[in-house]
Every structure is written in structure tokens, then in C-alpha cells.
Amino acid sequence: MKTNIIKLRLPGSLYQRIMTDLKRPHDFAYERVGFIFGVTTTINEYTRLITFNGYQPVDDDDYIKDDSVGACIGSRAIRSAMQRVMDQSCSAFHVHLHNHKGQPKPSGDDIAGLPPVIDSLANIDPDQPHGVLILSKDSFFSWVKVKGEIQLVIPEIISAVRYPMVIQFPSEKKAALNKLLLRQSFLGERSTAIFEHIKVGVVGLGGGGSHLVQQLAHLGIKHFTLFDFDKVEDSNHNRLIGAHFADIKRKLSKTEIARRLILAINPKAEITIVNARWQEATDKLQQCEVAFGGVDTYEDRGQLEAECRRYLIPLIDIGMDVHQTEQGFHISGQVILSMPGQSCMRCLGFINEDKLAMEAAKYGKVGGRPQVVWPNGLLASSAVGIFTDLVTGWSGQQERIVYLAYDGNSGLISNHVRLEYLEPDCDHYTLEQLGPPKFIKL
Amino acid sequence: MKFPEEQIDALKAIIPSVSQANEGGYDYLLLENLILPDGCQPAVTDALLCPSPREGYSSRLFFASQITGGPQRNWNGNIRALGRNWYAVSWQTIPGLKLVEMLMIHLKALRHP
């Protein structure tokens, strides 16, 4: 078992800033260099997540003319990064760009010159992981120095959290031709490997979540983390995909039904199950690269979004409702991609204090809310489509903001009208709030 | 959000460790080692005060665990915020209170009449 698992996550805005800066030509240096800073979350005994929240370019004047290397920087630049580590007790990574496509590899100069830079940073705050990040046009390489380890550690995953995501699993090998996934090869050369390595969380395994796991398993997702505290009941049977009639009598947990469904499609799937509220196992959620939310309440959605934003996890929320009006019943639903750094569910007007207040006033009186199978299936399908594009980028769409509105009576699903009136930035969640919460003493 | 200094000072006279954080657009005050009314179990706990409207309440006080030993109450708040799980009684306060007044009214929920 691997005992030092490191995950690196960069917010999309920071990634863009780094790329833009590193691509600028310098008067004499062949490449540019910078430092990125981040906070470390110890998820469990073996796993650490570093979320980056700051970038410091090396000043033009701090480059030293040396034709034998791509870039040589003076001690002032390194000292400045060390100072920030000392002031903020944060992780620091030396960062530079290899301007080509595909996974970058450290050059001979990198192998010789960069470990001492890491050591300098580690000398200031050895408790924090420090390292090197090499970017290419569409990939990453990294070494991380972890306290107590002699060897530099290669992270399990490095990702830029944007639309589409830039994801690199350093252990990834070119996937062998998989006949089972042959018809979806247009999703990209790396799509099979991405589906095989990425960790996906599904919170809520009712009408929506059960459709989600079924489709994700067909897509080729291998690593699932499933959250639901509930057991199947008679009233679930009209929409819970994978539930057998006998399961009701056996009071099978919804997670167990989902596991059986996934394994029937992909016997090699690795499934972590949480038979409790997701709030009781946030360490499991934090390890997921993308999460799906199929939860029942606005309150729970808001909390799940807050947790996902803190750890840079894109959250794809789905939900449906049936309303009774004077004209009869009306089915509506939504698919929202809550992308860290972009509009949140509050910015989108999907969650607000009025809705939360109404929901709280009804607490305990909700009873059996009407639900049916087909809107859940349609919303889940749309969500899986968004996920697929998010992690593979197959459609070529960039920086997409997703808020789809479903009208179940007409059967139409379309962009929500609110997308036309959005403010560009979200001020409910900021980069400063990444990682474990920081309280300001008053 | 910046709270009035005199209100923070008044709060700190009751509970010395007060710190602030924001999440999801809500400002919170973390009150560490808050002493609860007589008979409560635990007697001392961390609490999180949300002084602005939330879920239809003018303010809410969340505790690190459900408190026993007080009167029977509707513990309808069970949230994840700022990296921890918190529990709150359904207890309304009027708008416009100072922080200390808010805290005292919330603590009444745990006091036997």
C-alpha cells in the first residue's frame, strides 16, 4: 500500500495566471520561473492534499545571464519565496513551463538544479510539503518533499480545476485498447485512462444518484465513493435504478444497491461506501476529484458546495421537483456545475435565504414528496455528459458555466435564464478560503 | 464583515476566545470553550455564532455537539461549516440585537425555566 499519497489542485484562475506569466518572453532567459504557494490538508494518515492559492513570478531583474540553462535565478527570488513560507507557514513550489504538449519530464538541468531549491524551502518550514511543478501546454510533472521521506514523492494526481480540467496522473500509462469502450474513443486518447484513475464521489443514491452511478460505470469510471445513510423502502421503488423487489424486504442500504449495480457493469470497479451522512466522512469526499450531488434540500446542497469549494472539487448538482399549481402539476429540475472560482449556487440564485427559510419552516412536515423516474434519468444523463466534457474536454468548450433548467412538462432542457445576468466573479467563496479553515482572532 | 469593536469587547468579557471566519457568504464567530447553563452536558463547548439571517432565523448559535441536560428542544440544525459539524436548536431571536444579547438569548434555550 502506498503510504505517501499527494494530490495537487490548482484553481483555474491561478493556473491561467501562471501560464500567461510563464509564456512571456524574457530579455535573455529562455524560460521564466515562478513560485506557487498553497495550503496542505492532511486528509488521513497517508494522504495529503495541497490546494494552491498564490503565485509569485520571479522579477525580470532576478534572472542571471547563463546560456547553459533555460533560466537561472538569483538568490533574491528564492529568498522572497522563503520569506513567504516563513510568514504564512505555507507550501511553496518552484514552477516553470516546458512549452509543449504531453506530460513534461524534468530536464538534466532540472534534475541537478531544482532539488536544492526545494531543500531551501523545506529548511524554512520542514513541516510543510514543498516541491517543483513543471507545466506543459496540457499536463504536469511534480516532485514533492515530504517531512520524513528521503526520496522526493511524485503526486498521485495533479489537476487544474477549470472547464475543461487539466488532469495528470503521473503513474498513468497509455491505456491498452479497451473493446468495451471502443465506441467512445472520440472522447480523447486519454479518456480511458482518466476514467480509470479519477476518483468520483456521488452524494445521495436515490432517484438521481442511482442513475448517475449506472451511467458512470458504463462510461468506465473505476473509483467510486458513494455516500448515503438511507435504506431502500417501498416508496423508492418507482425510481431507484438497480433496486430489486426483494431489496425492500431486506432493507438493503442504497449504497449496497449502487455497489451491486456498478459491479455488475464493471467487476473491477473500486468502491468506497459511506453509510452515513457525507458530513460524517468528509475525508472521503476530499479525496474525490469530482463530486455529484443528488441531495434533497437546499441546506444540504449549500453545505456540500461549501465543502467542495474549500477543497477545489467541482460539484455537479442535480435535482427535480413536482409542484402543484392551478393548472395542474408541473415538473421542474436543474443541473448545476458548481465550479470552484466560478458562480456558486447562490450567485446563480438557486440557493437563497428565502428558499432556505421556507425549507426550514417545513422541517419535519415534508412527507412524501412526489418523484418519478424519468426526470431523474434525464437530469443524470445531462450531468454525466457535463462530467465527461469537464474531465476530457472532448467538445472543445472552454470556461463553460452550467446551469441547465428542465421543464418536465414540455420535456425541454435549456440554459437557465439567470446565466444571462451573472456577475463574473463569486464573492461567496474565495481563494483565501481554500484548505482547512482559518479563523482570525478578534 | 467587520463587527463593532465595542460589541466584540463585550463578547470577550464573557468568552475570551473569539475568532471570526467566513464561508459561503456567512460570517461566523467561533466561541471557544463557551460555558453553558447549569446542568448542561457538556458544561463547556465550542460554539459558532452566525449573527446574520440564516434559514429563516435572525441569527443562529451552533454547538459542537447536541447538548443534553437542558429542556427538550427541537435540534433541527445539523450542519457542516468551517470544517466541523455543528448542531443548533430551533430558536429565534429578534433582529437588531447586539452580539452579547444574541448569545444570551440563544443560551436561554438550554436553561430550564
From TrEMBL, chain A:
In terms of domain of life, where is this protein from?
Bacteria
Signal sequence span per UniProt?
Answer: none
Residue ranges annotated for the THIF-type NAD/FAD binding fold domain, each copy included: 185-412
**Which residue windows are coiled coil?**
none
InterPro entries, from UniProt? ThiF/MoeB/HesA (IPR045886), ThiF_NAD_FAD-bd (IPR000594), Ubiquitin-activating_enz (IPR035985)
The protein here is known as: THIF-type NAD/FAD binding fold domain-containing protein
* Organism, scientific name: Mucilaginibacter pocheonensis
From TrEMBL, chain B:
Return the protein name: Uncharacterized protein
